[in-house]
Amino acid sequence: MADPGEAGREELGVAHRDPPPAASSPSGDGAAAEEEEPAAAEGASEGEAGEAGGGGEAKAEPPDGEVRPGRGGRPYRTKEKKQKVDEDEIQKMQILVSSFSEEQLNRYEMYRRSAFPKAAIKRLIQSITGTSVSQNVVIAMSGISKVFVGEVVEEALDVCEKWGELPPLQPKHMREAVRRLKSRGQIPNSKYKKIIFH
Amino acid sequence: MADEEEDVPFEEDAEEAGGGLDGGQGKRKRLFSKELRCMMYGFGDDQNPYTESVDILEDLVIEFITEMTHKAMSIGRQGRVQVEDIVFLIRKDPRKFARVKDLLTMNEELKRARKAFDEANYGS
User: Fold this and answer.
1) Contact residues, chain B, for A174 at CB < 8 Å
2) Which ranges are annotated Basic and acidic residues under compositional bias (chain A) (predicted)?
3) Number of inter-chain CB pairs under 8 A, A vs B
4) Among residues A8, A39, A99, A164, which is most buried (max CB within 10 A)?
5) Residue A142 to chain B, least CA–CA distance (Å)
6) Of residues B8 and A177, which shows the higher confidence score?
């Protein structure tokens, strides 16, 4: 298997086996946890917070565990327990990131820092609605679009691996990934009327 | 074949936006090429992803945003897109839901921190 492609995904999946998100994790890679783990909002805070590059990403999370919201799907916890679990998570992430190779650090930095440009997203949404939208809407939309891209790319990498081929991803992998996600209902499509009973 | 199923929706997208050109959105300029490349690398693809794959992803993202926007316009306050509508639409998808909650909470924290910082400067 291609080293960079697999190593990048495996490493990001390793630390998240411990606190498994209850409702998600469709693929065994722990791919679901990848999205939830980095609490720092790249889209919202990257430009303003001015974080140190590369491995400093994990340390930028707030030390005060209280303000962290509960993850979707996790069972209810008391505040102290939540704080301790978050601290454990932060510590584990720090240990993990500190043991990354250079190539893995690069990929992790790209994973955290890449984001859609807010201006373009705002322009796109406003061209569809015809009215102006608030900043929070742009933040939310950029965030879930990035998660969406992640889902498609991860599915495409699964397809690529299953077909015994190597990255870079080809359009046929992307199309097969979209077909699979559509059948799982993860791609919104309001164009065709669904006929439930033939 | 599965491929043909996928070709039809993509061509329809092109007709809607570009005016009948085959192979994706012909006339529209590429909005997210650079950012999508970085994103694909971050999510596990090669450091130099294929341009065709990036184009397919861009079309997918634009379609996704368009669908979400239309749905959000039809619920809650009609004709407007509000955060509550997006959160409502996303409620069934645990990843996206958690992500939106995180982002909005972080944004509030940052606003509060910046405000406190500005007030501290003003006082001293």
Assistant:
1) 53, 56-57, 60
2) 1-19, 58-69
3) 225
4) A8
5) 9
6) A177
